[in-house]
């Protein structure tokens, strides 16, 4: 007896709730804790700025400038900004009213500046000032404080003041916000919490990458392969966003950093579009959305290939194009998933939920980037949203894998039952064949039509009773069995049944399990006869869809009966369920089975690989 499985939506909701609560507590509560940080100016500190758009001012010149050349800065929550490769000088005066020497850290609230220089008073220096440097282009060993955030130790004498000069420069534009940590240990604790949050986030991504890679190696599903590409691209982009390459000793200096950011972002958009198309089955459910998603993927590919242009650009426009394109691609797939869900694709609702989580986390980040404003703490929401999205998509794919395994087991069970039924019918088949041949000999001299009918019945019984449903055979042999069956039905229905055969000889060698199509023809006769107003028309067609795929169509006039509609004859849907199970077992991830109904016809379309290996 199989144990009763836990409903997937309940399991999914529980896992997501626990993961969301844990990650939110970690990111917003721990990594986002900045209570010991003081934006400048504030707490008795004064801030003055001196724009240097052409970068002509040198340190001795700045020191000699009169006081009225400096502009007071009072907006502690805003960023000091200068565009197009300029520089900004900042003079900060820190006060210490306590009787003890204060050793703290002055830092940039972000970690995206190319270079930040700092001059502090030092009697041991010949000029009386000590210069230190930090920023993205500065190697780790040359920094005053190790880490991705530009920061410097500052000592303020008891009941005194210290004047600090800072110069911020960036290739594209400067966004600088000075903050003061009166206690150095509080700064280091915040840094450690941020690194810990990143380690947990990237640990989750690496674990999901390994798990889904193992699944892909085993199953080789196209959508799973595209998901791996998406997951890997997001992991690379987030490592750039969080300056993980710098922490690993592999700093990327602008503009190489911006080129890599645009390339990985566009790559994620391309793989995401392909994954959505395959997973949702848009080519069948909504060809229009499939074409739109395909175009979005191609646009992301163009941006990916063109990201090398950033090397010669003086703006971040290409990166902003990548952000816009990825957001649009997400929007297209959300709309496509909604359409797929409304048309009966139940798995699309999980797709909607996962992208909703990503949107919730990424919207503040995308807006700030498009406005050319530093990311600030919004990057933490990106971590939260993307981690939940990847977790949900992996759970969704794992659920699909479990369902496929269950269907494969059901298919094996169905075939075992078919073997038992076949044994029951094969107790003495020669007795039946001999009896039919005797009847044929007696009837044929009096009625050639009746004799031919008896002969066809004998051939059909010999084919079905002695054949092995677990063996594979060419499509041509399968169609010959269908012709025998339809000849017998034609004798029963006579002029009320019209049969059309259209078999392309180029796909006659396509191999498939024996008697795979017979239940579809039986359903066409059974249900088409019950819903066709006058003459029942049945069409059997085979054709090549492309060089590697054979398309088989079995269609009948009438209308499609929903499962809850009343029927003139009992039907439990067992035939179609068994067919789907056999397809899953014999063509895992390489087949497509669709049912359409329009213009008075019900069509069953089956797409199979032309060169699939026979499975035991």
Key phrases:
616 residues; six-stranded antiparallel β-sheet; five-stranded mixed β-sheet; 51% helix; 19% strand; rod-shaped
How would the blueprint of this fold be written?
Layout: H1 8-31, E1 38-39, E2 46-52, H2 59-64, E3 71-72, E4 80-83, E5 87-96, E6 102-108, E7 115-121, E8 129-134, E9 151-156, E10 160-169, E11 173-176, E12 178-181, H3 184-219, H4 222-241, H5 244-247, H6 256-280, H7 282-285, H8 287-306, H9 317-342, H10 348-370, H11 378-425, H12 429-443, H13 448-466, E13 472-474, H14 475-493, E14 497-503, E15 511-513, H15 518-531, E16 536-546, E17 549-557, H16 574-586, E18 592-598, E19 601-609
Parallel strand pairs: 14-16
Antiparallel strand pairs: 1-12, 2-3, 2-5, 4-11, 5-10, 6-9, 6-12, 7-8, 7-10, 13-15, 16-17, 17-19, 18-19
Helix pairs in contact: 1-3, 1-11, 3-4, 3-11, 4-6, 4-11, 6-8, 6-9, 8-9, 9-10, 10-11, 11-16, 12-13, 13-14
Strand percentage: 15-25%
Structural class by helix and strand composition = alpha+beta
Share of residues in helices: 40-55%
Overall pLDDT confidence: 80
Shape: rod-shaped
Query: Radius of gyration from the CA trace?
Result: 35 Å
Q: How many helical stretches?
A: 16
Low-confidence stretches: 1-6, 365-376
The N- to C-terminal Cα distance equals 25 Å
Instruction: Walk across the major sheet and give the strand order.
Output: 3-2-5-10-7-8
Biggest sheet descriptor: 6 strands, antiparallel
Strand tally is: 19
């Amino acid at each position: 007896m199989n144990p009763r499985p836990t409903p997937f939506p309940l399991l999914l909701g529980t896992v997501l709730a626990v993961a969301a609560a844990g990650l939110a507590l970690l990111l917003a509560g721990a990594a986002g804790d900045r209570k010991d940080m003081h934006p400048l100016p504030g707490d008795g500190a004064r801030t003055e700025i001196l724009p240097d758009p052409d970068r002509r001012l040198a340190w001795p010149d700045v020191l000699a400038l009169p006081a009225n050349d400096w502009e007071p800065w009072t907006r502690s929550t805003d960023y000091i900004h200068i565009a197009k490769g300029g520089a900004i000088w900042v003079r900060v005066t820190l006060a210490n009213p306590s009787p003890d020497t204060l050793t703290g850290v002055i830092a940039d609230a972000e970690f995206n500046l190319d270079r930040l220089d700092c001059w502090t008073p030092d009697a041991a220096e010949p000029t009386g000032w000590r210069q230190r440097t930090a920023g993205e282009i500065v190697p780790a060993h040359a920094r005053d404080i190790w880490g991705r955030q530009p920061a410097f130790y500052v000592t303020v004498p008891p009941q005194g003041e210290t004047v600090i000069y800072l110069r911020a420069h960036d290739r594209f534009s400067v966004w600088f916000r000075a903050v003061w940590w009166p206690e150095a240990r509080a700064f280091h604790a915040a840094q450690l919490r941020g690194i810990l949050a990143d380690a947990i986030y990237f640990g989750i991504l690496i674990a999901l990458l390994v798990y889904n890679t193992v699944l892909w190696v085993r199953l080789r599903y196209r959508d799973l392969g595209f998901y791996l590409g998406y997951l890997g691209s997001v992991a690379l982009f987030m490592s750039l966003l969080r300056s993980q390459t710098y922490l690993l000793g592999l700093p990327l200096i602008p503009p190489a950093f911006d080129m890599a950011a645009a390339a990985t972002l566009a790559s994620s958009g391309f793989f995401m579009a392909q994954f959505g198309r395959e997973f949702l089955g848009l080519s069948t459910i909504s060809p229009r959305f499939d074409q739109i998603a395909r175009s979005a993927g191609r646009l992301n590919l163009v941006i990916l290939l063109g990201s090398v242009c950033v090397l010669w650009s003086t703006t971040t426009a290409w990166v902003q194009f990548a952000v816009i394109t990825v957001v649009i691609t997400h929007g297209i797939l959300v709309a496509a998933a909604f359409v797929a869900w409304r048309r009966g694709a139940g798995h699309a609702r999980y797709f909607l939920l996962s992208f909703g989580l990503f949107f919730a986390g990424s919207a503040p980040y995308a807006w700030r980037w498009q406005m050319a404003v530093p990311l600030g703490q919004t990057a933490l929401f990106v971590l939260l949203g993307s981690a939940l999205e990847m977790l949900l998509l992996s759970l969704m794919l794992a659920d699909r894998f479990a369902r496929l395994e269950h269907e494969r087991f059901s298919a094996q069970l169905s075939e075992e039952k078919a073997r038992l039924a076949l044994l029951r019918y094969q107790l003495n088949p020669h007795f039946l064949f001999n009896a039919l041949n005797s009847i044929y000999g007696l009837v044929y001299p009096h009625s050639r039509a009746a004799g031919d009918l008896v002969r066809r019945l004998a051939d059909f019984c010999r084919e079905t009773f002695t054949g092995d449903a677990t063996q594979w055979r060419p499509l041509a042999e399968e169609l010959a069995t269908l012709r025998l069956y339809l000849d017998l039905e034609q004798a029963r229905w006579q002029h009320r049944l019209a049969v059309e055969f259209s078999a392309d000889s180029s796909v006659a060698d396509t191999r498939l399990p024996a008697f795979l199509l017979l239940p579809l023809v039986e359903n066409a006769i059974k249900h088409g006869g019950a819903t066709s107003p006058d003459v029942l028309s049945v069409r059997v067609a085979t054709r090549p869809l492309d060089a590697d795929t054979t398309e088989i169509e079995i269609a009948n006039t009438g209308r499609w009966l929903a499962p809850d509609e009343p029927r003139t004859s009992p039907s439990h849907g067992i035939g179609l369920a068994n067919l789907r199970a056999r397809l899953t077992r014999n063509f895992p991830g390489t087949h497509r089975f669709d049912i359409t109904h329009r213009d008075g016809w019900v069509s069953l379309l089956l797409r199979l690989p032309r060169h699939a290996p026979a499975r035991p």
